[in-house]
Write a structure and sequence with these properties.
The longest helix has 20 residues. It is elongated and about 65 Å long. Strand 1 and strand 2 form a beta hairpin. The chain has 68 residues and is an alpha+beta fold.
Length: 68
């Protein structure tokens, strides 16, 4: 009985990890903003579409998405 309890506990932890922690809602990209090699990291929330760009001075800041 104790082995079954351990097995179910570990199985529940794996399921919780796979649902809550592992699949982050962000996709991380790099954006090159001019010809001299300037690159900034960008993260896009795949659920809401909210886009943020990272700058060393201000941290993550939201940018407006333009509709085509």
């Amino acid at each position: 009985m104790k082995k079954i309890t351990w097995f179910i506990g570990i199985l529940l932890l794996m399921v919780a990890f796979s649902l809550l922690i592992y699949p982050t809602p962000y996709r991380y990209l790099e954006f090159e903003y001019n010809d001299n090699g300037g690159r900034v990291p960008v993260k896009v929330n795949v659920i809401t579409g909210k886009t943020q760009v990272f700058t060393p001075l201000y941290g993550w800041q939201e940018i407006k998405n333009q509709k085509p």
